[in-house]
Amino acid sequence: MHCTAMIVGATGQDGAWLSSHLLGLGYRVIGTSRDAGTARTGGLDALGITARVTLASMNPIDFRSVVQTLAQHQPDEIYNLSGQSSVGLSFEQPVETLDSIGVGTINLLEAVRFLARPVRIYNAASSECFGEVTSAGADESHPFHPRSPYAVAKSTSYWLVANYREAYGLFACSGILFNHESPLRPTRFVTRKIIQTACRIAAGSGERLRLGNTAIRRDWGWAPEYVVAMHAML
């Protein structure tokens, strides 16, 4: 009997790549969206797997919705990849950011505890939790110093997972993800923004490409490899 994986945020870049990876391993994949009937499936479409992913309606910040969805589909593994994902936008929408990431995470954890099933949970944390670091970089032992509402929310989700693991014995872990890219990355992120704008300029748009702080240094990765690591943690 194949395992069932539930991917919260299956229509995003990571969710689409992870869906493809798990389907290739023989998983039954449930992808959640607040409204499955109107979900944007561009990433899944691009990988040719939309018909193989069962889309289910679930609102992560509504505890009852989370419990009902988990009880209906009974996943063996849950991958929590959802939530407001833009650092810049988090300064404009701090409450939405904290709700979608922090409340969404604790609802998943509490629902698993409430249903008392042996579910393994992966949570996507972020290198933004570290804030500014020295030139030596950061690893798992580096202290958190979040510098944005997004980073605060991701730090909250990280410690919630740690607390439920230690206090209740859940199999729950967080992967601290650095920047990772693919053609499925939304255009609001810097690499895609550069590519799209460069294409328009080459086509004669006459515009100028404007970027924010170009002194920031980041580690970059390839999204299809990141999702393999997510699965390996469970």
Key traits:
234 residues; alpha/beta; Rossmann fold; 6-stranded parallel beta sheet; two-stranded parallel sheet; 8 strands; 43% helix; globular
Structural category: alpha/beta
Helix % is 40-55%
Supply the CATH class: Alpha Beta
Shape assignment? globular
- What fraction strand? 15-25%
The first-to-last residue Cα distance is 18 Å
What is the subunit arrangement here?
A: single chain
Mean pLDDT figure? 93
Number of helices: 8
Radius of gyration of CA atoms, rounded to a whole number: 18 Å
CATH topology, by name, is Rossmann fold
- Name the helix and strand elements from N-terminus to C-terminus, one letter apiece: EHEHEHEHHEHEEHEH
Classified in CATH, the superfamily is NAD(P)-binding Rossmann-like Domain
Low-confidence parts: none
Largest sheet: 6 strands, parallel
Question: What is the topology, as strand order, of the major beta sheet?
Answer: 3-2-1-4-5-6
Q: What is this entry, summarized?
A:
The chain is an alpha/beta fold and 234 residues long. It is 43% helix and 17% strand.
Explained architecture:
The protein has 234 residues and is an alpha/beta fold. The chain has a single domain (4-181, 220-233), classed as Rossmann fold (3-Layer(aba) Sandwich). 43% of the residues lie in helices and 17% in strands. The chain is built from 8 helices and 8 strands; from the N terminus they run βαβαβαβααβαββαβα. It has helices spanning 13-24, 42-46, 63-73, 87-92, 94-115, 149-168, 190-202, 223-233, and strands at 4-8, 28-33, 54-57, 77-80, 120-126, 171-177, 179-181, 220-222. The strands form 2 sheets. Strands 3-2-1-4-5-6 form a 6-stranded parallel sheet, sandwiched between helices. A two-stranded parallel ribbon has the order 7-8. Helix 7 (190-202) links the parallel strand 7 and strand 8 (220-222). Helix 1 (13-24) packs across helix 8. The two termini are 18 Å apart. The mean pLDDT is 93.
